[in-house]
User: Fold these one by one.
Assistant:
Number 1:
Amino acid sequence: MASKRTPIHSNFRPSNLSSSKWETKGTKPLPDPSSVKKIFLMVLLFGCKKVMFTPTNVLRGYALALFLISVIGKQMPIPKTFFSRSDNFLNLYFVKLGWLWTLIVAFPFILLTSFVYCSGKRDRILKHLARLVVATGFWFFLTKFFVYIESNVGSCIGREPSKEISKLNKIDCISGKHFWRGFDISGHTFLLIYSMLILIEETKVIQGWETIEDFIRNEEHTRQSKSQSNGPLSNLSAKDFECVKISYSKFTSYIRGLFIGITALVIIWNVMLISTMIYFHDVSEKLISGIIAVFSWFITYKVWFAYPHVLPYAPGEGDFKYFKDTASIVPPPRKKRNNIVNEKGERIPTFLGMPLYGLQTQKSTQSNGSRS
């Protein structure tokens, strides 16, 4: 007669299932299994993060490349293309309305993300949206200033040189069908660079966004089991925690969609910036506008908004902290690889830090021993 088999699961479960310790602690809940759609979305978001959060050294090389492209475009004959026309549809419907597109994607993104990490508190959400008000003020004032400089720093040039024509202002010069030559600081260059820097700063809050789901799951389990919690959400009241839980589940899909749309807009901005560097404006006009754009971004996001609890709030400043600005983290120096050599001084190939030949020798020894 066959002997009675012991259930398999008995080897992996504690013998005393009715103990109070087991019932109180339980196990932490696991996330739902990933579907093909979710995996594809994660891959797409990973690619978008690679585009948006470029390392600092790469950005420096990119800025240098833009400067060289600008010089080459001015000194060498470049063939006319779709981008050399100022009436191409990307320039007419995107760059001409560039700040409007920036607000269309940035406003709902800031609104939804701040609603989650501010637990739905209206006053704090408004303090995050105030960053767009400040940025719009910088854009409006500086673009008007560029127009003022171009209108007052220049001269009118007619078909025949004349002192009377050269004294005309810009409006009378153009109305008289003459040509106005002024110092035209590139407003497009300023807009494209400033908009990209703002969108990159605002979307940094999506780094680590998936960890909020783990924080919610663990905190919910901890509160149900009435055990002590020291997680990022432990200081939230029951009302605030419920708001974070519901808003995260409700808004995350929209936030991810907006992030993908922002990435697409930044790609368009890069394409149009390169075409501007090649075909339009003098090098000095583009260089000055780029410096002003970087300075405007730095003085607001790195100086003004960097102070905690000062209006406006910095991106991600809320009721709990869930992400780190990886752009400001200096990576540790790479360790030199330790070469493994044999008795003859020859280098041994390794895999994950272990010698391949040693593993093969060990396996062969074990197999021979088992056979004997």
Note: Residues 8-25, 327-332, 359-368 have pLDDT under 50 and may be disordered.
Number 2:
Amino acid sequence: MKQLLRWSAVLRRQFGERVQKVSLDIGAGCPHRRGLRDGGCIFCDERGGGSGAFIQGVSLREQVRKGIAGAWKHYGTRSIILYFQSYSATNLPLERFASALQEARDAASAWGANVRAISVSTRPDLLPEPVLNYLEELAERCQIWLELGVQTTDPQGLRWLRRGHGLDSVEQALARLSKTRLRVCAHLIAGIPGEREDQLARSALWLAERGAHALKFHPLYVLRGTPLETLYAAGRFAPLSREKYVERLVKALRELPDGIVLQRLTAGVRPARLVAPKWILDKESLERQIAARFAARL
């Protein structure tokens, strides 16, 4: 029977122990934001999908230290992935980007961590050649992941989300990355207004066919201080129900080819930042429900 290929299990088999992501914020911003606090995609808050450490004035070195301490305290591991999560990490000149990666690696070494990989979150339309060349060189010594915020392959959905790029940018990015040793994890969202019932499955299969190595899924949710919150308050956006999300996700999982790594099946959100839907806070129960539904073949 087809099995879910979970990221945590893949890492444990590869490295012989638990590997924990350490989320980092280098204040890179995004090309369609006005500074860090304003603009961007309809669902994104001023923290750019991350911790908000940069706008809170937390140094990169301190972010690394806290992340390593947390990995040890909660999971008993010092094997980590340096995850440049917030905003679009490649939205910086090469010199600043490379300097940030080196600073994080040096800090991790100083705190006794074993850096198993580096993961860089960015947009399909923000892959400058010098940055890709730098990451290619780095990949000779360290596993490198590029996390692409694709969200959907439906052109109408991309416009509704205010992504600022079209599906052609995604296809071109995947074609370029297929010629490198970089590993690609694509992010997908379910519950965009107007999308087809099977859009999540269509998007996932489309990405797998074009070389994505891994996928992250989550429902469209409402954060405080976002344009989406305004729509939600006005009754112009309603999140998916838990049951509907599970149904759409399981359909997508069943249609994926073998070998696609599942890095995430739902969102991890701080309760204080979340407006709706509240059911996503019950993450462990939700993941058990997804796994059971997938196994049941119902």
Note: The first strand starts at residue 20 and ends at 24.
